[in-house]
Structures are given as structure tokens and as C-alpha cells.
Write a structure and sequence with these properties.
The chain has 420 residues and is α+β, with helices and mostly antiparallel strands. The chain folds into two domains: 42-127, Purple acid phosphatase-like, N-terminal (Immunoglobulin-like, Sandwich); 129-415, Metallo-dependent phosphatases (Purple Acid Phosphatase, chain A, domain 2, 4-Layer Sandwich). 14% of the residues lie in helices and 31% in strands. The protein has helices at residues 147-157, 178-191, 216-221, 260-271, 299-314; strands at 11-12, 42-49, 53-60, 67-71, 79-82, 84-86, 89-90, 93-94, 97-103, 111-116, 124-127, 135-139, 163-167, 196-199, 237-241, 244-248, 279-283, 319-322, 328-335, 338-339, 345-349, 370-374, 378-384, 389-398, 401-411. The strands form five sheets. Strands 15, 16, 17, 18, 19, 20, 21 and 22 form an eight-stranded mixed β-sheet that branches. The protein has a seven-stranded mixed β-sheet with strand order 1-25-24-23-12-13-14. Helix 4 packs parallel to helix 5 (299-314). The protein is globular and about 60 Å long. The relative contact order is 0.16. Keywords: Glycoprotein, Hydrolase, Signal, Zinc. Residues 136-328 form the Calcineurin-like phosphoesterase domain.
């Protein structure tokens, strides 16, 4: 059933007064000291693997064992697990040793302490997500590694989040391979403490004509649990946590009907039991709905929407997060370009802090399906309170202070009788 009435859900605005939009800031290229111990673990980050395991990834410049010692008390490591070591080459660049270890089973809502099997390893700590509601996701795309990125990360670190979702464009390394190392060092203080779940963007692809294979660094460094979800590609996958099913789609791999990604998405959606997993969230990079002049008409937006919007609408997806456009915009529930009570809430949040600056030119007048839009750097918080209700809030970086500029309560479509 189609609805031509505008459906807003308890929209609450705060702090939306006019202000001077911040300019871009210089890149923060974090390098190791020239005399640094080449066995020191660096670029540590963690990610979810199944319901009770965690993948721990790190890099060293020289060979060290792929071993993680861990436990629930500082300095006491009851468990030890071994993993794998890999590396890759890109033109004249050779990566360090990329270590990956999957640990678990782990208890929910528990603080774990871990270190690596080298004399130079410090102790790290992370907290596992809860097994039931409430759960909070921090969301920000197009991070890069600028002064604004640093500000965004500082605000995220204070948000008491459980899992970080990144809808593409991580390092903005493009073809400058060492910038992946710099990015890994920049995000380590957060990414080593909470799971980071990411999908790819256009700036994560090397995109060199002489090298047909793309996403070499991304796939090697940011290994997501694609195989656990039945996917054959690290560029699209899904995971479930605390009653939320999250689907990470690839805007820059084949999404046409009949493609591997399309067939996998069909299969994955059929497995979701909304009586047990009432929330269904999707991440893409290139937004399907966008009233900003930036990135209009791209095949990754228009073509992917044409191919997959019907699948997600039929599955009653609650929220779709996107990046790519360097600004913030939230839409009312929408399907096929019209307000629809049973459509997803589309949110563009490609404003983490990239070097290219903000996309501040919007079409006028503002479309009726667009609820809130503003060009500034910042991050979002998606707090799933219970099986039926969640709160979304967006926090702009205003003079390095985090200011909530937009918020809305969202009711899961699994609880809307009109959308059964």
C-alpha cells in the first residue's frame, strides 16, 4: 500500500541555528618515530565475528607471532589464541605484517584485556557489545585523517557507543599507500576498544588503470566477517548484534539483478526473523536519496537504487545509512521518491572530516521528503532502546564542540501493523 501523506516520527530539532560552516583542515599524517621498535604493534583494530567472537588485527614492520593473550582482568591472560599473518604489495609499496586473530567465545557487556606475544606489546582493552537491548551505534562516513577527523573521533569516543558503523571512505589514501598506515594509527585509540564495522567507498579503491584489481589495501587491512554471513566478498556482508541485523552493501561492486551481491542480498534478507531480530539496518556508500548538488546522477546511486530498492522495501528495512556526500541529510520514510510509511529512513552522514571539505550547496526548495539537511562535520548516534523504539541523533562539530543539531525517534517497521 502506498501512502502520499508525509509521515514524520516524533521529530525533535535542537541547536539548528545558523552558524559559520567550518573550512577543511590539513591532513594528519601520523608516522612512527624513525627509531621506533619495528616489532611494536600498531594500527590495532577489532571487528565482530559471529555472535560471540572478535577479530583483532594489527601490523608490525618486522616479523612477530600472530598471538593474542587475553582475559577479563588487567595483566591476567587466561586465554591465548593464534592466527594468521599476511602482507600485500601495491606498486612500489610493501605493507608490514598484517596479523589477524579471532578470539572467543566472549561474554557480552564484558571488559577484556589483551596483549600480543611480543616484549614490546602494551596492554589493550575492549568491551563487548550487549546481548540485548539497549545498544548504541556510532555512525560516521568519509572519515579521512584531518583535524576535523580528530575532532569527530574525540566526540565519538565520549558517546558511550557499543559498535561503530562506517559507510565507506576510510583513509582517503586513494593511491598513496602509506596513508593507510597513517589512518590506522589515527583511529587505533578508538578502533582497538570497540568493534568497527565498515564498508567500502570510492576513495578506498586504488583505481589505477594498470592494476585491474581494486580495494587491495582495504581488503587486506579491514577484513570483515563476510564468510560468516554467506557472502563470497569482503565488499558486502551482514552481521547480527543485540536484536539488530545490519547489512553492509558494496556500492562499488556489481549490484545488478543476477549479480553475486544481488543474489546474496536476496538470500540474506530471507534469513532475517523480525520476531527475533526486529531491527533491520543497511549501509551503503553512495546515497540513493540526495538533495545536495554533490554526486547527483551517479550509477552507484541511481543504478543501485533501481536494482535493490524494491528488495529492501519488501523486507521493511528500517534505516539506510550512506556517506559519499560531505554533508548531513535525513529523509522521512520514503520509497520510489515519495513519502511512504513503510519505507526506510534514509540518512546521509558522509561528513566525518575528509580533506575535500563540505558539500554546502543544496537544491532549492528543500524537497518535502527531506526532513533535515546541513553541511557540517560530525557524527551520528543510533541508539536502539528496545524492540520497537530507537533514537537517532546527529552531532555537528561546532568549533570542536559536539552539538546535537537533529534528532528523531524511530519505530521499527516490525511493529507497524500497516506494514505487515
Amino acid at each position: 500500500m502506498r501512502f502520499h501523506k508525509l509521515w514524520t516520527l516524533l521529530v525533535v530539532f535542537t541547536g539548528a541555528a545558523a552558524y559559520d560552516r567550518p573550512p577543511p583542515r590539513e591532513n594528519l599524517v601520523l608516522s612512527l618515530a624513525g627509531d621506533a621498535d619495528p616489532t611494536i604493534p600498531q594500527q590495532v583494530h577489532i571487528s565482530l565475528v559471529g555472535k560471540d567472537r572478535m577479530r583483532i588485527s594489527w601490523i608490525t614492520d618486522e616479523h612477530t607471532p600472530a598471538t593474542v593473550n587475553y582475559g577479563t582482568s588487567p595483566g591476567k591472560y587466561e586465554y591465548s589464541t593464534n592466527g594468521t599473518i599476511s602482507s600485500y604489495q601495491h606498486l612500489n609499496y610493501t605493507s608490514g605484517e598484517i596479523h589477524e586473530v579471532i578470539i572467543g567465545p566472549l561474554d557480552p557487556s564484558t571488559e577484556y584485556y589483551y596483549r600480543f606475544a611480543t616484549n614490546s606489546s602494551p596492554e589493550y582493552t575492549f568491551k563487548t557489545p550487549p546481548s540485548k537491548f539497549p545498544i548504541k551505534f556510532a555512525v560516521s562516513g568519509d572519515l579521512g585523517q584531518t583535524g576535523w577527523t580528530k575532532s569527530t573521533l574525540e566526540h565519538i569516543s565520549k558517546s558511550n557507543y557499543d559498535v561503530f558503523l562506517l559507510p565507506g571512505d576510510l583513509s582517503y589514501a586513494d593511491s598513496v599507500a602509506p596513508l593507510w598506515d597513517s589512518f590506522g594509527r589515527l583511529v587505533e585509540p578508538l578502533a582497538s576498544k570497540r568493534p568497527w564495522m565498515v564498508t567500502q567507498g570510492n576513495h578506498d579503491s586504488e583505481n589505477i588503470i594498470a592494476i585491474p584489481t581494486t580495494f587491495i589495501a582495504y581488503n587486506a587491512r579491514w577484513h570483515m566477517p563476510f564468510d560468516v554471513s554467506g557472502s563470497t566478498s569482503n565488499l558486502y556482508y551482514s552481521f547480527e548484534i543485540s536484536g539488530v541485523h545490519v547489512i553492509m552493501l558494496g556500492s562499488y561492486t556489481d549490484f545488478r539483478p543476477g549479480s553475486n551481491q544481488y543474489q546474496w542480498l536476496e538470500s540474506d534478507l530471507m534469513k532475517v526473523d523480525r520476531s527475533k531480530t526486529p531491527w533491520l539496518v543497511v549501509l551503503i556508500h553512495a546515497p540513493w536519496y540526495n538533495s545536495n548538488y554533490a554526486h547527483q546522477g551517479e550509477i552507484q546511486s541511481v543504478g543501485m537504487m533501481e536494482s535493490m530498492e524494491g528488495l529492501l522495501y519488501k523486507a521493511r528495512v528500517d534505516v539506510i545509512f550512506a556517506g559519499h556526500v560531505h554533508a548531513y541529510e535525513r529523509f522521512h520514510r520514503v520509497y520510489n521518491h515519495e513519502a511512504d510509511r513503510c519505507g526506510p529512513v534514509h540518512i546521509t552522514i558522509g561528513d566525518g572530516g575528509n580533506l575535500h571539505g563540505l558539500a554546502s550547496n543544496y537544491t532549492k526548495p528543500q524537497p518535502t521528503i527531506s526532513a533535515f539537511r546541513e553541511a557540517s562535520f560530525g557524527h551520528g548516534q543510533f541508539e536502539v532502546v528496545n524492540a520497537s523504539h530507537a533514537k537517532w541523533s546527529w552531532h555537528r562539530n561546532n568549533d570542536d564542540e559536539s552539538v546535537q543539531a537533529d534528532s528523531v525517534s524511530i519505530i521499527s517497521l516490525a511493529f507497524d501493523p500497516a506494514c505487515k
